[in-house]
């Protein structure tokens, strides 16, 4: 906050002998905005104000300015806290001094949270909320702040209650815009809690409010983006990749509209409307992000790569000017998705380097690591599978399960751990215990269409390895039915090639060919290197059995090419020092990763 922001107001209140205050304030602001900022001199100028025994208004405001400068520009948090506490105490004794009073409370509570003194921040915010009801802007802002604090503590019930209070208050003071912000924020938390019965009517109400609200075009479009992001992520959480397309298209059109609008300098007439959900640039990155999430689930991996590149480029530009924590969160989620793409497309070495990049980002932020540790170990588990390190994969997935409380992620991890046990072939007790918990026919733990389809595939894979081919076909046909319904291309390709393998084993070569050819086409479109490798090997054998010598030779050549590409990438990945991350299963990410002598794993299982 600019120290000179209040200059006009103060100038009107000061008598001539107090002009010294403006002079000191001017010097302080000059030093604060110098390049580079001269914070020590700025602080000296502000501290000099107290030598003149100023009146309470100036004293309180100067304590606020000192506290704010020290909090934002130095590591002297104790001195910042002392000044902010004095500003909060003195300002409560001065009538009609809301801006200083509530800003002091807001910054002081932020500082308490930074010092892990959440129990000091909560009562401070509650008191500020209680006495701010006649000041709509600050009342709404403080409600948002306390709701965010509860959210960070995973107390989503209290956060939702506060957002509900805020929505009703905004309605009473005639701010439909801020009412929508409160309701959409509550909808976001209800989605996180999986309270879908409450989400649907709330989103319906939000849609009506957003469409009916007539105000600043950018604010209106930003509400629509918020609303559509919630709808899209709701569909994607449910694994409904095809059903989400109309909403995603609306969202992409909406962000294009926002990018053509100019920021309106006219402030809203209602002080309760003085909020923005996200800056335009952040919204743009967020839309790229949900597009990447959709492309990844649908199996359009080249499209996912294209939008990831765009989003990361935008993020790098933004991070030069903006240190907002949400940008690092966006970056980590983008990297998590592109890492999965790399593992599918046969770029394990690049995926491993990007996993290391996520580790580095998490080292810089304990909160980021807390929120993404389970995902990080899951990614390492997927990498371990890709390089045939099954013991390490099991350790990584077990660690991830211990760290997550998110039901969808838990189900995803269990599904992949089950595939590890199937490949190992000697973990029957553990495998059956897992499969019982993700039974797609009975009490499946989540509502995700995609994860349930994957659970049918895992059952089909196990039945195939056990030689129970009719049972395997039943499970795989169920997977195909579900994956075709929602355009889940990777599951479709995997199911087709496994069905083709079953028909080949049963001697039905014509039917096997009918399965493997479309599997190969789909795998090439994705592109999925492992399915291409598997399909080409099967096509070679099928065509040989059918007497198609030329086709068999062509398939053999394709198989050889895929094998070479995978082998080279396998060796490159295992030779990287980052490969040692597969042994990390406890505590924060290792700071330094030691190099090793070379690959210690075999590609035989892939060939």
TrEMBL record:
A Pfam family assignment: Cohesin_load
Record bears the keyword Oxidoreductase: no
GO annotation terms (biological process): cell division; chromosome segregation; mitotic sister chromatid cohesion
SUPFAM superfamilies reported for this sequence: TPR-like (SSF48452)
InterPro entries cross-referenced by the UniProt entry: MAU2, TPR-like_helical_dom_sf
Localisation: Nucleus, Nucleoplasm
GO CC, one annotated term: nucleoplasm
Alphabetized UniProt keyword annotations: Cell cycle, Cell division, Chromosome partition, Mitosis, Nucleus
Family membership: Belongs to the SCC4/mau-2 family.
UniProt protein name: MAU2 chromatid cohesion factor homolog
């Amino acid at each position: 906050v600019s120290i000179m922001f209040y200059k006009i107001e103060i100038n009107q209140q000061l008598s001539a002998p107090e002009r010294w205050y403006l002079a000191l304030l001017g010097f302080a602001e000059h030093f604060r905005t110098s390049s580079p900022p001269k914070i020590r001199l700025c602080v000296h100028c502000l501290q000099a104000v107290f030598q003149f025994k100023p009146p309470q208004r100036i004293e309180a405001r100067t304590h606020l300015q000192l506290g704010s400068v020290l909090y934002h520009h130095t590591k002297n948090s104790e001195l910042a806290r002392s000044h902010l506490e004095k500003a909060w105490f003195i300002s409560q004794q001065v009538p009609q001094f809301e801006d200083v009073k509530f800003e002091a409370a807001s910054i002081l509570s932020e500082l308490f949270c930074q010092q892990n003194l959440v129990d000091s921040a909560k009562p401070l915010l509650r008191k500020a909320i209680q006495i701010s009801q006649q000041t709509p802007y600050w009342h709404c802002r403080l409600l948002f702040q306390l709701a965010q604090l509860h959210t960070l503590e995973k107390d989503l019930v209290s956060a939702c209650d506060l957002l509900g209070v805020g929505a009703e208050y905004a309605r009473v003071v005639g701010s439909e815009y801020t009412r929508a912000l409160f309701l959409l924020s509550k909808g976001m938390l209800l989605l996180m809690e999986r309270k879908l019965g409450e989400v649907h009517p709330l989103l319906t109400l939000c849609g009506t409010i957003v469409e009916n609200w007539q105000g600043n075009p950018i604010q209106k479009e930003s509400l629509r983006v918020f609303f559509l992001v919630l709808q899209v992520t709701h569909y994607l959480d449910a694994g409904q990749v095809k059903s989400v397309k109309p909403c995603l298209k609306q969202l992409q059109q909406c962000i294009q509209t926002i990018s053509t609008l100019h920021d309106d300098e006219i402030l809203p007439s209602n002080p309760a409307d003085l909020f923005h959900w996200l800056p335009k640039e952040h919204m743009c990155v967020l839309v790229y992000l949900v597009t990447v999430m959709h492309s990844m689930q649908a199996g359009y991996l080249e499209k996912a790569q294209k939008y990831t590149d765009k989003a990361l480029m935008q993020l790098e530009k933004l991070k030069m000017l903006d240190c907002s924590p949400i940008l690092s969160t966006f970056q980590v989620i983008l990297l998590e998705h592109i890492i999965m793409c790399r593992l599918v497309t046969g770029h394990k070495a690049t995926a491993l380097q990007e996993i290391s990049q996520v580790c580095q980002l998490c080292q810089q932020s304990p909160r980021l690591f807390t929120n993404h540790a389970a995902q990080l170990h899951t990614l390492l588990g997927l990498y371990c599978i890709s390089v045939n390190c099954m013991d390490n994969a099991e350790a990584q997935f077990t660690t991830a399960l211990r760290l997550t409380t998110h039901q969808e992620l838990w189900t995803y991890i269990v599904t992949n751990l089950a595939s590890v046990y199937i490949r190992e072939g000697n973990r029957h007790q553990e495998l059956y215990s897992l499969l019982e918990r993700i039974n797609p026919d009975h009490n499946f733990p989540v509502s995700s269409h995609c994860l349930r389809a994957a659970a049918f595939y895992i059952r089909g894979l196990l039945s195939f390895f056990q030689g129970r081919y009719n049972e395997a076909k039943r499970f795989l046909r169920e997977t195909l039915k579900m994956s075709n319904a929602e355009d889940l291309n990777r599951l479709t390709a995997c199911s087709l090639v496994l069905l083709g393998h079953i028909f080949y084993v049963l001697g039905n070569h014509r039917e096997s060919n009918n399965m493997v050819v479309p599997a190969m086409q789909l795998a090439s479109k994705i592109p999925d290197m492992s399915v291409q490798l598997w399909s080409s090997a099967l096509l070679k054998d099928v065509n040989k059995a059918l007497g198609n010598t030329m086709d068999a030779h062509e398939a053999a050549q394709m198989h050889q090419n895929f094998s070479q590409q995978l082998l080279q990438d396998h060796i490159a990945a295992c030779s990287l020092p980052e490969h040692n991350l597969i042994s990390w299963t406890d505590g924060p990410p290792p700071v330094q990763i030691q190099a090793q002598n070379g690959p210690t794993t075999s590609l035989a299982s892939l060939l």
